[in-house]
Amino acid sequence: MKSPRTPRAAVLRVALIASARFPVREPFAGGLEAHTWMLARELTDRGHHVELFAAPGSDPALGLNELPVHPCVLSDVARTDASMPAADWMAEHHAYLRLMLDMAKDGEQRFDIVHNNSLHHLPVAMASALKMPMVTTLHTPPTPWLESAVQSQDHCPVSFTAVSAHTAAAWRATAPEARVVRNGVDTRRWPVGPGGPYLVWSGRMVPEKGAHLAVAAAREAGLPLRLAGPVGDRRYFAEQLAPLLGDGIEYVGHLGRNALSHLVGGAATALVTPCWDEPYGLAVAEALSCGTPVCGFDRGALGEILTPDCGRLASADAGGLADLIRETVRLDRRAARERAEHFCSMGTMADGYTALYEELAL
Question: Is the entire prediction scored with pTM above 0.85?
Answer without folding.
Answer: yes
